[in-house]
Amino acid sequence: xxxxxxxxxxxxxxxxxxxxxxxxxxxxxxxxxxxxxxxxxxxxxxxxxxxxxxxxxxxxxxxxxxxxxxxxxxxxxxxxxxxxxxxxxxxxxxxxxxxxxxxxxxxxxxxxxxxxxxxxxxxxxxxxxxxxxxxxxxxxxxxxxxxxxxxxxxxxxxxxxxxxxxxxxxxxxxxxxxxxxxxxxxxxxxxxxxxxxxxxxxxxxxxxxxxxxxxxxxxxxxxxxxxxxxxxxxxxxxxxxxxxxxxxxxxxxxxxxxxxxxxxxxxxxxxxxxxxxxxxxxxxxxxxxxxxxxxxxxxxxxxxxxxxxxxxxxxxxxxxxxxxx
Amino acid sequence: xxxxxxxxxxxxxxxxxxxxxxxxxxxxxxxxxxxxxxxxxxxxxxxxxxxxxxxxxxxxxxxxxxxxxxxxxxxxxxxxxxxxxxxxxxxxxxxxxxxxxxxxxxxxxxxxxxxxxxxxxxxxxxxxxxxxxxxxxxxxxxxxxxxxxxxxxxxxxxxxxxxxxxxxxxxxxxxxxxxxxxxxxxxxxxxxxxxxxxxxxxxxxxxxxxxxxxxxxxxxxxxxxxxxxxxxxxxxxxxxxxxxxxxxxxxxxxxxxxxxxxxxxxxxxxxxxxxxxxxxxxxxxxxxxxxxxxxxxxxxxxxxxxxxxxxxxxxxxxxxxxxxxxxxxxxxxxxxxxx
Lengths: 325, 339
Prior knowledge:
heterodimer; A: alpha/beta; 6-stranded mixed β-sheet; 4-stranded antiparallel β-sheet; 12 helices; 11 strands; globular; B: 6-stranded parallel β-sheet; 11 helices; 33% helix; 24% strand
């Protein structure tokens, strides 16, 4: 098992500009109302990672989040009607605003801190384990890697794009490597989405995932106040044990679990500044608002090393012996 | 496929470790063990035990692991090959270059047999990832390397067989520095020029306790080695600088966990990036929690035997080239060469 820790000076304000995020969140709230996305008396669901029941944790933007009693993953329950969710992603102004305004305004910083390092992570890992000339399949997400860059790497010889929603024809794995960046948290049926991934990747091939963590510092301290937590997008935030269980059920073995997120400490400090009613344990408050930048960096690095930053990236290998549940 | 029947000669700390791995490996079965010193207390294997390695070689075996001190390794490797056994031997492959040449001559007499040496550092996670990154070419051309491999010595150091000149044949360079030389070759290929200082600075055992060496390849690649048994804090650090980036391997997961957390730092030369331009590029640090290097060596050895493939990692040629560098480092320092 390995973990990745990153250095650098990514700033919360650069990647999540306050004014743009405010506008985006107001559009999310409006879409939830106008498109009828808010869950109405739906059926409670068990933990999508391990199947155990959850207990209410907090409510955000009209969605109830539960914490699994076994693996501590967080998940929205009940879920909205699937057609309403689809409508939200297809017609909603918020998601369009995210794609057209937020991602455009932050493209340079995301290229430097997210897409570039992610590209190196994928090519380096895939080459080390599988060699070169591989077929890569990218599942639709909001911030895909650059197809031309992928094809420019010796790691990859062919590119396939796919959607989580499609059915995989039996016996037809198409890829050596499947990329699911910011995709699986959106799936109303996580088990099915992972089965879809398993169906796409050949035995011993690799699945790369990036998503929000259910054990991250930011969500554990802020809960409903976590501004980057958007319910129709983040239907589940798995913990590490949750990922192990979910991947195992789908026929994958976890190879790497890293939380290279760089913004937890800044995000929590900003939340404290915005909301005077937010009370943290005094020592945590002192740490996140420490005047010495080196202390803040060191604290963030500790979170990364402990697997407790908000953003997860993981690699899993498709178990060749898996025959399905 | 039947399991390969394995005998182990030399049942000290390393031999027992190999024995445990062999016993767990699906391709091997531990069939016999030999050690001239007899079985250590509490370390008796569940298979026949011999105090004479020749008796072990008369058993019905497919392969022999030679886990003995340097002075006896070459004779045992040659005897095992001549007895028709595949051989896995610990590094170093002996005390001198002639030892390796003798081994290679025996290997040449038995072209159907496999011979592999335990340069296990090649199989550490950090090394494998670094090698893959260097091979991919995405970090550009390799320019130079700097490797430090340091041992703390300790109160038992002088009593260890590794500190006996007659048994070991060399000091820290031959015992541990050879791993770093092997890694230099893995990443940078062959080196033509060698400059060195080899010193006896603290220990009075009659062997070097520090070796400093500069190696240069035909195309100007330079590697700098410091191998030490006066480091007081166990240290492993290998820096690899390429035209478009760098890799720093720091720490090494070992059985004792005393070389620190195994980490690979990856940085890139990007002068369009403000941080890169001011000399503080963004870095990615990979931490590794698992060492499967020994298991991988066994997997590779088994695969070579079963698939009748040539040994490509840890071959006798790798051992010869590493020993040539050791020999030249000793030889370049006139003072050490004269001893």
